[in-house]
Amino acid sequence: MRGDLRLALPAAAAWVTALVIVGLPDSVPWAAAGLWMGAALVLVVMLLLRRRDEPRPEGLDVPEGRPAGVAVAIVAVTLAAAALVCTSVAAQNPRRHPAELPVAGDSMMGSAVLRVTGLSEAAPAPFGSARSRVQVPAELATFTTGNVETVARSPVLVFTEVDDPESLRIGAVLAARGTLTAVESGGSREFLLFGRGEAEVVAAPGWWLDWADQVRRSFRASVESLPGDGRELLTGLAIGDDRQVSDELTEAMTNTGLTHLTAVSGANCAVVVGTVVLVGGALGASRRVRLVCGLATLVLFVVLVTPEPSVLRAATMATIVLVVTLLGRPAAGLPPLFLSVVVLLTVDPWLSRSAGFALSVLATAGLLLLTRPLAALAGRLMPRWLALAVAVPVAAQLACQPVLFLLSPQLTPYTVPANLLAEPAAAAVSVLGLGVCLLGVLAPGLASAAAWLPWVPSAWIGAVARFFAGLPFAVVPFADSLLAASVALAVLGAVVFCIAAARRHRSATRAVAGGCAAVVVVSVGLATGGVIARDGAIPPGWMIAACDIGQGDAVVLRSAGSVALVDVGPEPEPLEECLADLGIERIDLLVLTHYDRDHVGGVDAVIGRVSTAVVGPPDGAADDRLLDRLDEGGAHLVDGVGGLHGELGALGWSVLWPQPHTRLRGNDASVTVLFTGPLTALFLGDLGESAQNALVATGSLGRVDVVKVSHHGSADQSDRLYTRVSARLGLISVGTDNGYGHPTDRLLSLLARTGTQAFRTDTLGLITVSVPPAAPDASAADPPALSVWSEHRPP
């Protein structure tokens, strides 16, 4: 163990140094010089210690210097590793972020030449555009503004329009004009390029990259006709293209700890290389031939699946193992892992801030350090083969959990059984998927038939994810990610201590193990209790629920088992979570007031779940495409214009605005809906003051119980309208620290003057409004009693 860990300190030093120094570009030269000087000084000390260890004449008292010499050598290597990282940053910074280009927060217009470095994905298209808009990772080669051309090697994310997204192959050279915006230092990208007009492909990829694109295309064609989750996961697991995985399946994979199986990971590299070496051995090839074939296969595989951080880590580690083995030296365990960390962070120090890289390294370290001890412990309770199978996901999960909590403060209790069932299938998909890739090039017709073989284990993985994600308490959220990560780190440390001290310090091991178990039980109990308390606290008889989805609108109405949803917020994930908390599966009536992203961006959360959609007037091709998606999902689309009406359980609803044949678009064309029945509620969308006054002039407004305040509480409001409706409650759907100053003091003062009590999602979270049963002596003319519940206490 001591020998295995000698490179741990250099790897950790390289990582910490890279993590800090990439965010402090001005300090890099000084840090590099200081570290190299420190390494040289320690090297001198080490040489002096070695001289002290040389044989001396008999009779002299020679001190033992070897242990000190080893320790000093480790310190020297540690400083050298940190210095290498700093030197790499210093060497790359001038090209990665040239001084002539904008700094963080600034922008510059110009023309760019870029080389595509990753797979393109669909991006929201600008209004009125008939072309596809994509986002694609690339490397900026030159940027020209005016007569000044700047040469660079900057990672950039490009948003541009193209006629054919398939032309954006990895390695292709693009020419685009647009706005170059710098992002904060230290990230995986230096700039964002927002293209104006269409990008032009000026050079095709070289043959050494283009072959991989041809294989990927052939594979996608081979599996195109396969059904369901199996097809979606298959392209990710086999060739690293996870663009086909739906948001719903991604969420299920995340909630069951199977996210690493949505695309190629480090484990796939090991499976592929191991298979090649084993097949070579079965064919009688010499060890040297097998290892060379393994290296060649590894290179081709990385090019095929694209060099994601986890793949790079596994490929580098595998290369070290194969090369050292080829030289006739033993190579196993932790040293190749630690050395691969130092090598990769020297080549690309910005990997230090990659969550994928961190999880890959931690998972591998957990497997190498913890699997055998955990299997030995579990072997006391179960058969040895089962103990080893259980120990593998437990070891990886223990090592990764602190980082997972930092990324998302939630516990996924079914991760271990889900991985236990899914991991063997992932290995089968990797091997069989590559076979389909080869057939796709040689015999496309045969490949389509053979694609069913990897589809079976791929579909099994999807079924496992959906099964466990549908169980109670599939996700247990924590309120504080830093606290959760600290507890996970303490538990990991306790486990390592118990394993290391189990034989020599049994009493201490029992005490630490007992304390660790108590911490886990209490933490999970508190988190689970919080979920139960929150779900149980939502009043069962609510009629209106304003979801806390950030800066946007998403309000649910429910009556007699029927459900309406007014707008869907900016992103699908918060809306999905809110609907799940409220127990909403199906939406009878969807109202999309207008097409700003903060009102329609979350539409993916409801596609396929809507019966009828009342929609505002579209304004361009992007709006039409969104409506087409709703239509394809089974929704019946109806134009939301004045006079349209219907029923929702015991509630009636009617559209008050806009007028038929209106030429208005955007905010002032917001579909305004009035719900009447046990209570009256008015939903104003984002109507501005002039449109609100025009609505008042129609004479269709009277007093209401609840008003959904327009435009998140902006100042663009009509005193006449709010005075006319004199609502008792005003719901303001608004995001925390939204940057717009919403809700404004003017709006809040206006509500106060009209006797409307404001309830805000930014301070209260989820808000529900219920109508308790009327008192026996209540008059029919009395307004209904209203009961308001909120997720958080008022500040």
TrEMBL record:
InterPro entries: ComA-like_MBL, ComEC_N, Competence_DNA_uptake, Metallo-B-lactamas, RibonucZ/Hydroxyglut_hydro. Residues 775-785 have a biased composition (Low complexity). CDD domains: ComA-like_MBL-fold. It is a multi-pass membrane protein. It comes from the Bacteria. Keywords: Cell membrane, Membrane, Transmembrane, Transmembrane helix. The keyword Cell membrane applies. The chain crosses the membrane at residues 7-24, 30-49, 70-91, 261-282, 289-305, 334-351, 357-378, 385-405, 425-447, 482-502, 511-533. It holds the Pfam family Lactamase_B. This is ComEC/Rec2 family competence protein. Residues 551-737 form the Metallo-beta-lactamase domain. NCBIfam families: ComEC_N-term. SMART domains: Lactamase_B (SM00849). Residues 775-795 are annotated as: Disordered. One of its GO terms (cellular component) is plasma membrane.
